Amino acid sequence: MGFKACQETEVPKVTVVFLALKDQRGERDPSDNLGSKELLVQLVGVNGLPGFNGTEGRPGPPGPKGDTGDKGTPTELAVRLVPGKARGRVEVNVEGVWGTVCDDSFDTVDGKVICKMLGYQTAVSTYVASPGSGKIWLDELGCLGIESDIFNCRHSGVGIHNCNHNEDAGVQCV
């Protein structure tokens, strides 16, 4: 015994197919106990609600190893703190020669740029450091705090100053 379509009616966005139990010859099976007005209805073309997502599968195997990167060139330090790593007199390197920074106009914003160059977050204080020697490279610094290099800050010019080493700037980084 199989189902045979008796009548198909189009409804907007839904196709309704009326089915009745028929035998293989197309005759109604008298043993199905259906009254003459009972029909089976099948809706065609109606989407139900989406089902639940399945469980997440196991991770796949690791991918192949990537290519070796280019060898970097070590960068020469442009700034350091003497005598410590996080606190000390500010010294800058100009063409391989270390020199100091004058404390005229030097503040924590200038110090922040120096501290960030050294890998710290910020400067918590500035002070007049113990006197250095040699060149005084920078004076009248005017950083905005967004510079990545102290030499990108406003200053009076490399090597141009009106200071002595008893005015060398120091900074405390954190």
TrEMBL record:
Keywords recorded for this protein, A-Z: Disulfide bond, Glycoprotein, Receptor
Membrane among keywords: no
A cellular component term, taken from the record's GO annotations: membrane
Domain SRCR: 79-174
Region (Disordered): 51-74
InterPro entries (alphabetical): SRCR (IPR001190), SRCR-like_dom_sf (IPR036772)
Cysteines engaged in disulfide bonds, as pairs: 143-153
Name the UniProt record assigns to this protein: Macrophage receptor MARCO
Organism of provenance: Liparis tanakae
Underlying gene: MARCO
